[in-house]
Every structure is written in structure tokens, then in C-alpha cells.
Amino acid sequence: MWLPWWPSCREPGSTLFFISAGELAVGLVYGLALALLNEMMLFAGQIAGLQFSFSLVNLLDPASNIQTPLLGELFQLMGTLVVIAAGLDRILLASMVRSFRVVPLGAYTLAPMAAMGIVRAAAASFWLRSSWPRPSLRRPC
Fold this sequence. Notes:
Layout: H1 14-51, E1 58-61, E2 66-69, H2 70-85, H3 88-102, H4 112-130
Antiparallel strand pairs: 1-2
């Protein structure tokens, strides 16, 4: 399997790369938590719309050309409102500040073997996706 250029630990700029990778991992964890909360509200809205027989009522997002259910969009907006009204946005920012106190910026570096494992796992996920069987459009004889 071909992998892109990977800095070795002996190169001068490699420590900056591994420090940046560690900080990126922390940011991805926070982003994933918020994205999961948002998608959970969308899914709850889809289920509620299905139960209320609103499954065909969709909103078209002109930017991405994706249809989203009406109640899913409403649940997302209401979920965001509840998060802000309950002060969870301030709690999230406080936890981020607390994480910077516990592990200061640049103090956590990703080990080269762990970073290589993450890159290989991501590359394998793209390879698996491209190797799925594609449906045939021909009618069987």
C-alpha cells in the first residue's frame, strides 16, 4: 500500500508535525462530540416525522443540494437552542480551557507509531470503500 511522505523523527520539522497532530486530535474529539449531538437531534426529528406521517415533507438545502426532513431541521434548531439556554456551550468552552491547563499546548505529542497507525487506518477505510461491489444496471438474462 502506498503512503504519502511521512517525516522521520530525526528530521528538524518532525516535532512540529507531531505536536500539531496531537492538537488536531484533541480538536477532532470536541468536534465529533458536537457533531454527534447535532446528528442525534436530526435522527430524532426523522423518527418523529416518520411517526407523524411527515416523512415526505423535506427541506432542500440550496448550498449542498441535500434534502433534510422538516422535523429533523426543527429538532436540530431546538436542540441548539436548548444547548445554548442550558449553558452547555459555556461548559464546553470551560472544559476546553481546563484541558489546556492539564495538557498545555505542545506538551502532548503523538508517537510516530501511533500516528502511522492512524494514517494506515484512514487509508484502509478509503480503500475498503472503493472496493465495495457496485450494482449492475443491466437486467439479468
